[in-house]
Amino acid sequence: MRILLTNDDGINAPGLAALADEMSGHGEVIIYAPVSEMSAVGHAITLSDPLRVVEFHKNGRLFGHAVRGTPADCVKIATWVLNRQDRKPDILISGINLGSNTGINTIYSGTVSAATEGAIFGIPAIAISLASFTSRDFSVAAQFAPVVARHLLANPLPPGVFLNVNVPAVPKEAVQGIAITRQGFTNYIEEYEVRRDPHDREYYWLTGEKMEVETNSDIDDRAIIENRISITPIQLDLTCYPALSQLRNWRITF
Amino acid sequence: MRILLTNDDGINAPGLAALADEMSGHGEVIIYAPVSEMSAVGHAITLSDPLRVVEFHKNGRLFGHAVRGTPADCVKIATWVLNRQDRKPDILISGINLGSNTGINTIYSGTVSAATEGAIFGIPAIAISLASFTSRDFSVAAQFAPVVARHLLANPLPPGVFLNVNVPAVPKEAVQGIAITRQGFTNYIEEYEVRRDPHDREYYWLTGEKMEVETNSDIDDRAIIENRISITPIQLDLTCYPALSQLRNWRITF
């Protein structure tokens, strides 16, 4: 099995190292990840600038390829290189992200966007995140990655569909099972902090607090609060089908 | 009516000027747009850096606010500023983009991401694009913007749903009507061009050709080819609902 790994926290992030360690017991691991942190880049790609790719060594050996670009760039260039070598990946795993990617955050997530890019290329894809900004213990999420990968490969999803996995930051024995969830609408209540720079010019810095989580038990954020692993199937097709007939009834003329 | 405008081609782009000209006949126009071109930034937001906002003058008068950030940043900061002034916008229009935002491109689009951000804030939102990379005539798209805006305000869509409008680059009399469409899967066949810089280091540049467009007449790209205006309702919820029961049948244990 050929396993392509990427992330949005950067090639030197501990979550990627934990994932690579675990997955190396299950196949050939190939890593293309951003040189530096690329959180909240959404599904950005680099068009107007050249892309740089350099080998990245760790502990005296080749760990992967560092890309001066976004997570989606990493998947694009990796897929292009591997296809030319007739080494198409069997699966793509993006993560392990430090911090959950649930609710509205799913839309901003670089981790999820890499899996989106995998789905565009027809590669079975998983985004996996640890629901903590402070934990350094990625072991439970890392152990879960091959479990969900095995199920995904045995049961292919429809074209353009991939998995968004979020793992609670608790010891394995405290995990209260696995929840198949939908993306909720939990968001941050955002504020800008207004500051002045040393040249007395104003600037703004985004801050925010997570709003109350929805109570429905099949919502991604709710599952995490209940210490369950959340798995949400995500699709590339953004069309709101129920609205189609509503719009047709508008009978717009122009 | 208070109309918030933004785009991803930058505050000085002719498509935004055409939209502002047209909409100023329908209400108070407020512009927050990126300082420079921000195409294919997806739903990126600026978290790790401060945001700069400066007044942007054109022809000797204030045109709008130039934001050193992404289209989503523009909508966030504009909404925050306007809410504090008790001047919440009635509608958000993002565009007019130079180049269509259809098929898989919808996912990469900064123009669409600004409308997404509007929908997150509960503002009726429209992304509007001209299906040409070379035309400089935004007049038909500009004239259509208030038409679709009026319908949207009269017939609110469900929360988290907004409109992605693409206008063919033809004279008004050649427009073959309006199509309510779904997002297709038309994509680019991508290649990287490998080059060497003056220091003999390798770099890559993304290139691509649009693949054949799907033939189904209710697909966004198809409508454009048939010189119809395409309107696709887009939703924030990325969940693939039909896959939920499939995943529950996996009965994953961990």
Task: Summarize the structure in words.
2 copies of one chain form a homodimer. The first copy, chain A, is an alpha/beta fold and 254 residues long. Chain A contains 7 helices and 11 strands. In chain A, the strands form 2 sheets. Chain A has a 9-stranded mixed β-sheet, sandwiched between helices. A two-stranded antiparallel sheet of chain A has the order 9-10. In chain A, helix 5 links the parallel strand 6 (125-131) and strand 7. Chain A is globular and about 60 Å long. At the A-B interface, helix 2, helix 3, helix 4, helix 5 and strand 9 of A face helix 2, helix 3, helix 4, helix 5 and strand 9 of B.
Main interface: chain pair and counts: A-B, 80 and 78 residues
Could you tell me the CATH topology label of chain A.
Stationary-phase Survival Protein Sure Homolog, Chain: A
Can you count the beta strands of chain A?
A: 11
SSE string of chain A, helix = H, strand = E? EHEEEHEHHEHEEEEHEH
Tell me the count of domains of chain A.
1
